[in-house]
């Protein structure tokens, strides 16, 4: 008897645009364009981001205004609906609940595991709190221990441990350098390709 299937998806770059890139475009601060697609050290990346926000006096409301005007990537909502009709789906992201709510609303509120920001009374983001270290990998491992057959898809350095832990992992529109560093993960560039890979690996139509 086949185990029940659960699919773990990254959020930014897979279902929605990169939040920090959109903030960079809105504010004109190019240094905010750096993401986990280029920098594997997440703590270093977030410390850099918080320092930039502080120097430029940008607060949580400024960022939420940008996010409110964002939407899912073209085809993402239909892809997610297709997937949720066939198996369980969890979004595993290194974003923050204070950022993600408007985007989750537009995606029909899928289950999301992510992190939290520490915000002072004036709305300044003063720190961030990871739910746990390497939460994507540990979440997949926990689901496997619950007897799920796990599939995963992501696009960045911080997804590679999740992809490796899953029974089958796939890149979705990664930067060119990542597949060269991690050739074990098949690359997909459209939702149709990702659907085919997931359906075949999970044995669902």
Key features?
single chain, 205 residues, alpha/beta, Rossmann fold, 9 helices, 7 strands
Summarize the structure.
The chain has helices at residues 19-27, 42-55, 60-68, 76-84, 97-106, 135-145, 160-165, 177-181, 191-202, and strands at residues 5-9, 88-96, 111-119, 125-129, 149-154, 168-172, 187-188. By secondary structure, it is of the alpha/beta class. The protein has a domain at 5-15 and 74-115 and 131-202: Rossmann fold (3-Layer(aba) Sandwich).
Detailed description of the structure:
The chain is an alpha/beta fold. The chain has a domain at 5-15 and 74-115 and 131-202: HAD superfamily/HAD-like (Rossmann fold, 3-Layer(aba) Sandwich), CATH 3.40.50.1000. It contains nine helices and seven strands. It has helices at residues 19-27, 42-55, 60-68, 76-84, 97-106, 135-145, 160-165, 177-181, 191-202; strands at 5-9, 88-96, 111-119, 125-129, 149-154, 168-172, 187-188. The chain has a seven-stranded mixed β-sheet with strand order 4-3-2-1-5-6-7, with helices on both faces. Helix 3 runs parallel beside helix 5 (97-106). The relative contact order is 0.18. The mean pLDDT is 94.
Layout of helices and strands, plus pairs?
Elements: E1 5-9, H1 19-27, H2 42-55, H3 60-68, H4 76-84, E2 88-96, H5 97-106, E3 111-119, E4 125-129, H6 135-145, E5 149-154, H7 160-165, E6 168-172, H8 177-181, E7 187-188, H9 191-202
Parallel strand pairs: 1-2, 1-5, 2-3, 5-6, 6-7
Antiparallel strand pairs: 3-4
